[in-house]
Amino acid sequence: MTAIDPSPNHLQLTRGGQLRHFLTLDGLNRELLTDILDTADSFIEVGERSIKKVPLLRGRTVVNLFFESSTRTRSTFELAAKRLSADVLNLDISTSATSKGESLSDTLLNLEAMASDMFVVRHSQSGAPHFIAESVTPGVAIINAGDGRHAHPTQAMLDMLTIRQHKRSFAGLKVAIVGDILHSRVARSQIRALNELGAEEVRVIAPGTLLPRDVEDLGCTVEYDMIRGMRDLDVVIMLRLQKERMEGALLPSEREFYRLYGLNQDKLALAKPDCIVMHPGPINRGVEIESAVADGPQSVILNQVTNGIAIRMAVMSMAMGGQMAERQQKQMEREGGRA
Amino acid sequence: MTALLDINPLLDELEAGLRDVLERRSIKNPALIGIRTGGVWIADILNKRLGLKQDFGELDISFYRDDFSRIGLNPTVTPSSLAFDTEGRDIILVDDVIMSGRTIRAAMNEIFDYGRPASIILATLIDLGARELPIQPDVVGKVLELETYQRVKLRGPEPLRIEFQETGQ
Q: For residue B94, which of A44, A144, A160, B43 is within the disulfide window of CB 3.0 to 4.6 Å?
């Protein structure tokens, strides 16, 4: 029996180590993560120009393939693709062929036949973007926009960009992620990125019912008490508490959660004075975070939104560039072989 | 084999040529933009020599290159930085070497994304010919004709020097 390669990098990196898909942060080294952050930094400036466009993906077609709804993530991917001058197709899955019984493979074949160059995929099933990347025609780049409980790598990278902007370096940083770790694909990607980039400590703060089993294996410390957990923090990342889960057995009530794990000014005062507050949005005010904190001087939540476009521009252009470079390399090899 | 080419006469020629063009066109308040990296070093020197009060701009054309579809993205992109409004301004665009003209085309495309300048004057330290596009500098420090085995490279910023290399082929 052939062993399955546990690293996704045979799929998402070219032989030269460039991105050709962006599926997960697992296996990506610090150098590549830093390249993504540096490239995104350059794209921030594009958003400040009178004409907020560069021609990198001119003539390319990007398909936003969202099997799970998300207004914010889809909008930032759409804006990122348009700022790269790509043509963008937003596929509304609820009215698409898949709801008429067409298989995912057939849907993809049809989209490929329309000469698409990139699929941005969000799916409720973990591993769906990975599956698509394995089956798609060579030359088409797949970007993971969130899959199941598995990964949300662009969200994690925009968080890393925001942290780097405010803290300059990851060395010595103590970062806490607070809330629903169990259901969060963002938290997994954040923990992975923070460790690879050299944060001193990644701490998760949550009730036991909202923590995955063996959570420490992800590369973090665990704190059940938020009052203890806030001490010495440089960065606190609040996660969205999915209200639909409040009715289950995981938590007694929103009010109880807010009392114990909601971020208010008193709890924030326990962290370092320059501790920044982050939240991936959309915010449930009064559930995860108090308005005075969400809108306060330590909040960088709106910076995260701006950085989301820059990170997505970086990842899309790097993956498309990797596909191009690989195609060029193969062509040279073919021509070399004929000579 | 590496030989050095004296840079100062080239800079003198560039400065004199620019003063002449500015006078002929009655341009009083131009803004300098250097193309990274060599063009930025030259723009820095010209900015001082011409006595311009405003900081020069720095352009990184990585997002505008026409070879993205063949070789992908330049891994060392740094943000362009223009600390002035280009709309309606007379611009002096500076690069160290012009050859095919593709870099200048990309740079002009980028400049226009910041606003529509009144005019652009192109100044390059060295012109190697071998043009692939109909783009010509207004002012050059020196025209060089290289053999296929020869290369010229600006190194800097301190000291700024031109290396003239022959590969021996």
A: B43
